[in-house]
Predict the 3D structure of the following.
Amino acid sequence: GLKKKEVNVLCLGLDNSGKTTIINQLKPSNAQAQDIVPTIGFSIEKFKTSSLSFTVFDMSGQGRYRNLWEHYYKEGQAIIFVIDSGDKLRMVVAKEELDTLLNHPDIKHRRIPILFFANKMDLRDALSSVKVSQLLCLENIKDKPWHICASDAVKGEGLQEGVDWLQEQIA
Ligand code: GTP
Ligand code: MG
């Protein structure tokens, strides 16, 4: 068949936001892990859409590993940034990490698409994607295409919409 275009994606966001759970849901069912554990360092994962073959750098969000992220920025052609919509206390930390990312020399001047997942929308006190977008000041991102989706990674809800958007940006 036709060879799919290969795309490197960086999956970033704080620990416990649901990055690995999201990526796991995007993999074919026979390749999905049954138990998700906190990522140590990072993990390289693959999934395909109709036209693209994604290689994902699923980074650990733990504080002690966040300094690893920047070593992969050059290789990334798209970013998935995951936020725990129920973690109001750490929304400011998520914003700090996002701002650091956006100001990094390997990211700053590139028109790299960023897909945000306002994840854990199933939690009773979850913030809406609009509220998350306001708290992270996403409207200030003017030089990169971005999109935010509410998601429930455990049930797999909201993920396809996001991936469809990402595919449109790259294809
Ligand atoms: P690190 O690897 O430590 O950076 O964390 P991570 O962002 O990869 O988070 P992970 O996917 O390991 O998920 C952390 C916890 O959140 C797990 O217990 C998941 O089951 C849970 N979780 C992930 N997504 C959702 C969601 O949409 N809703 C709910 N309720 N729980 C979720
Ligand atoms: Mg993880």
